[in-house]
Amino acid sequence: GPLLVGSEYFFQKVKATESGDPMFHGGDAVVSWLITGETRAYNTRGGFFNQVSPARTVFEGGPGAWELVGRFSYIDLDGGSLRGGRFWRVTPMVNWHLSDNLRLEVAYGYGQLDRFDQARHQIGSHVPPATNNHDAHRSFSCNKSLGTPSIVVRDANSGMNPPILWFDISGRLW
């Protein structure tokens, strides 16, 4: 059907006696609902879900396929003598699948990094705070660290990221 619920969790034991053989863990949970009723076919041979194929693409005069997605992710990088911190993030998204090969994604993320017992909130994608007085009060940058281009706005006075949206237009040639 049009509803997809999934999750995964991992444990990673690292052989590093100098650091106390740390173990790290994390995972995520996702809920996806295709509002327009399409379903995501499952590829049993490959073990993955195929792309969304709109019943009527935008290029055929239809609405395409609309999808609401909610995702929660968590990772704990404290293990042994290493203190990498703990990070969680909530990411709601809206995807508009214009055709089999073209999708527009709008996403907003809010998360918290607790490292060295100093919790810091991260909104949007990872952008370092402004570090000098030459930065404008508001500066814009393009962030490709997550594999998707995003437009990020940051406040040079506080060094914190205000709420942002990132936009991803992705397509395939096959």
What's the SSE blueprint?
Layout: E1 3-13, E2 23-34, E3 42-43, E4 48-49, E5 65-79, E6 82-99, E7 102-107, E8 110-115, E9 118-123, E10 138-143, E11 150-155, E12 166-171
Can you offer a commentary on this structure?
By secondary structure, this protein is mainly β. The protein contains no helices and 12 strands. It has strands at 3-13, 23-34, 42-43, 48-49, 65-79, 82-99, 102-107, 110-115, 118-123, 138-143, 150-155, 166-171. The strands form 3 sheets. Strands 1, 2, 5, 6, 7, 8, 9 and 12 form an 8-stranded antiparallel beta sheet that branches. It has a two-stranded antiparallel ribbon with strand order 3-4. The two termini are 25 Å apart. Residues 125-165 have low confidence and may be disordered.
Q: Number of helix segments?
A: 0
The mean pLDDT is: 75
Tell me the Rg in angstroms: 20 Å
Uncertain regions: pLDDT < 50 for 5+ in a row?
125-165
- Percent helix range: under 10%
Give me the count of strands: 12
For the record, give the distance between the C-alpha atoms at the N and C termini, rounded to a whole number: 25 Å
